Amino acid sequence: MKIIAGNWKMNGSSDALKNMQDALRDVDTQNTVILCVPFTMLTPDGGRAAIGAQDVSAHDHGAFTGEVSAQMLRSAGAKYVIVGHSERRMYHGETNDIVRTKAESAIANDIIPIICVGETMDEKQAGKTMSVIESGVRESIPSDPRGKIIVAYEPRWAIGAGLTPTAAEIATAHELIAKTLESMGLGGTPVLYGASVKGNNAAEIMSIPNVDGVLVGGASLKPDDFIPIITAVK
Length: 234
Hints:
By secondary structure, the chain is of the alpha/beta class. It has 9 helices and 8 strands. The chain has helices at residues 14-24, 70-76, 86-92, 96-108, 121-125, 129-140, 167-183, 202-206, 223-230, and strands at residues 3-7, 32-36, 50-53, 80-83, 112-117, 150-153, 191-193, 213-216. Helix 2 links the parallel strand 3 and strand 4 (80-83).
């Protein structure tokens, strides 16, 4: 069984979500399907898919205008939340420490965080890919995750660029993540791959060892694009 998580980013509408839910109703799959939607679309009834958010505050409550706490997400229906997405790290300066704090808040409120790690193009070209990935895993995961986390590997240089690493590059990164998690006592933690996942490459990507599913961006917005990814692996 694989985990197929869609990240709608700042796209979509309540009508679009209903359309997706209707389309997923009769999809024949045992895979876990998650839709991470904007705050305004969170709902306790995700239908065939579990509902997740795309970010969470590191704070539980207080004078933090515009922030949304994990408790609020939970009450709105979120079962998962993405933390440390490459775009949050790039545009909002989120560090591993911030990501860890957000993950801790999610876990404390019975929300499973999807913790993203990955290297930039500059880091890749400098030969730092493996060290960045390992430090991202070790520093972004809470010390007591209670077995309630998912890790997602995002080569940040490929996000939104239409680029996809080679199968060998994905395999090497996921092997490192799996071994790092094992050394932390977190063996068996699901590890997703995310960057330019589409219906025509999803099966190949998910056949790579230690790839337990995918985190899908633009291709998760329309049923005709998302369903082939969900059904790519039986």
